[in-house]
């Protein structure tokens, strides 16, 4: 059976992806694995917002997004981050294509709470056929974490949450949530494999904090909805912490 792998990478990853990353991608492709990349871009968005005098405001760790903020987010993700990533893949001999919510209704979403977060959304539908079509052409889809509502409003989506939604709808076998640490550590010791229940306990007891919280939440959500293994790691060549049933 063909293995399906979703990899979430940060917005600065275009300059940080190692030769080993691309060698791993190529090995997986030779084994007939189908791969999806979901990219972030928070640093680029914040930098562009500063240039355009749009204040950066976080609510519960989520970037409050105005209509102007959505336009800036699109500029950063679709005008800078995604093209750079597609080019980086090309230079490393991996054929890829940039996709976004406007690509034949790829990602449909709804607002979380406009009063609290502005134009921030959650994905409730994925055009899986479009992704299948890209795979049939041996292309790696590189997807921006933006959704579009049924009435055409663009929505900002947390990249970890976007990757999780895509992994769920594509019935992925593996989800890699790449971060700047090699995995989840407790008292300095790396956790190699944990269940969603254990992950939730660590989160609720505040052993896991900060930027790891959305990753753990995403991992729990993904595993409970059928993704076999979720890896929290800093590279695809290292399994990191695996959340699995």
TrEMBL record:
EC number(s) given by UniProt: 2.7.2.8
SUPFAM superfamilies on file: Carbamate kinase-like
Recorded metabolic or biological pathway in which this protein acts: Amino-acid biosynthesis; L-arginine biosynthesis; N(2)-acetyl-L-ornithine from L-glutamate: step 2/4
CDD domains, per database record: AAK_NAGK-like
Signal peptide residues on this chain, from the entry's feature table: none
Cell location: Cytoplasm
Catalytic activity as recorded in UniProt: N-acetyl-L-glutamate + ATP = N-acetyl-L-glutamyl 5-phosphate + ADP
Keyword terms, alphabetized: Amino-acid biosynthesis, Arginine biosynthesis, ATP-binding, Cytoplasm, Kinase, Nucleotide-binding, Transferase
Pfam families in alphabetical order: AA_kinase
Matches recorded under PANTHER family: N-ACETYLGLUTAMATE SYNTHASE (PTHR23342), N-ACETYLGLUTAMATE SYNTHASE, MITOCHONDRIAL (PTHR23342:SF0)
Protein family: Belongs to the acetylglutamate kinase family. ArgB subfamily.
UniProt function note: Catalyzes the ATP-dependent phosphorylation of N-acetyl-L-glutamate.
Official protein name in the record: Acetylglutamate kinase
Taxonomic placement: Bacteria, Bacillati, Bacillota, Bacilli, Lactobacillales
């Amino acid at each position: 059976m063909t293995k399906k792998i979703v990899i979430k990478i940060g917005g600065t990853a275009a300059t940080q992806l190692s030769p080993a990353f691309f060698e791993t991608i190529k090995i997986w492709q030779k084994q007939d694995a189908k791969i999806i990349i979901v990219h972030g871009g928070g640093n680029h968005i914040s930098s562009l917002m500063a240039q355009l005098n749009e204040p950066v405001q976080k609510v519960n760790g989520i970037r409050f997004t105005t209509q102007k903020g959505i336009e800036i987010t699109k500029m950063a993700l679709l005008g800078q981050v995604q093209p750079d990533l597609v080019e980086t893949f090309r230079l490393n001999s991996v054929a890829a294509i940039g996709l976004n919510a406007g690509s034949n209704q790829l990602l449909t979403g709804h607002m979380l709470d406009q009063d609290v977060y502005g134009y921030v959304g959650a994905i409730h539908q994925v055009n899986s056929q479009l992704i299948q079509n890209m795979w049939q052409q041996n292309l790696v889809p590189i997807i921006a974490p933006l959704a579009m509502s049924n009435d055409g409003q663009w929505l900002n989506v947390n990249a970890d949450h976007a990757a999780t939604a895509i992994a769920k709808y594509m019935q992925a076998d593996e989800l890699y949530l790449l971060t700047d640490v090699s995995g989840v550590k407790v008292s300095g010791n790396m956790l190699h494999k944990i269940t969603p229940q254990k992950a939730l306990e660590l989160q609720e007891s505040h052993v896991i904090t900060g930027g790891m919280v959305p990753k753990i939440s995403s991992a729990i959500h993904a595993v409970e909805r059928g993704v076999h293994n979720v890896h929290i790691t800093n590279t695809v060549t290292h399994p990191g912490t695996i959340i699995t049933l």
